[in-house]
Amino acid sequence: MTEERTTPLRERLIEDMRIRGLGHQSQRAHIRAVKDFAEFLGRSPDTATTEELRTYQLHMTDTGITPWVYNARITGLRFFFLMTCGREEMKRYMQFRTQPRKLPAVLSAEEVSELLAVAPAPGLKYRAALSISTSFGTHD
């Protein structure tokens, strides 16, 4: 296994994370985020412009990076630019993505009737509970 070369910038990032008490997994995620950005740039990430940061975010979006991974990378870059580089202006150009919410499955009136019909015996108590719980969310 080859050991990765530690640059003074990376060492400073690691020290900043240790000072702020970040856990091991968070440190690894932040290092990975900065490394990915550096590979995208082809040079040291502390020299990035706001336009290059914007282009990187578009690149992540266009290549299908999930919102979860995208946001983890932005969090890492945010820490890097704010704490390690002291470049507060970069924060304004970092946008988080929202995870699309899926609508819950809603039973049709027919499905609700079938569900109530198969409630276990003696049934009255169960049917009453199911009737009440299935009536929430219906707007007549």
UniProtKB/TrEMBL annotation:
<keyword id="KW-0238">DNA-binding</keyword>
<keyword id="KW-0229">DNA integration</keyword>
<dbReference type="InterPro" id="IPR044068">
    <property type="entry name" value="CB"/>
</dbReference>
<protein>
    <submittedName>
        <fullName>Phage integrase N-terminal SAM-like domain-containing protein</fullName>
    </submittedName>
</protein>
<dbReference type="InterPro" id="IPR010998">
    <property type="entry name" value="Integrase_recombinase_N"/>
</dbReference>
<dbReference type="Pfam" id="PF13495">
    <property type="entry name" value="Phage_int_SAM_4"/>
</dbReference>
<dbReference type="InterPro" id="IPR004107">
    <property type="entry name" value="Integrase_SAM-like_N"/>
</dbReference>
<dbReference type="InterPro" id="IPR011010">
    <property type="entry name" value="DNA_brk_join_enz"/>
</dbReference>
<feature type="domain" description="Core-binding (CB)">
    <location>
        <begin position="4"/>
        <end position="85"/>
    </location>
</feature>
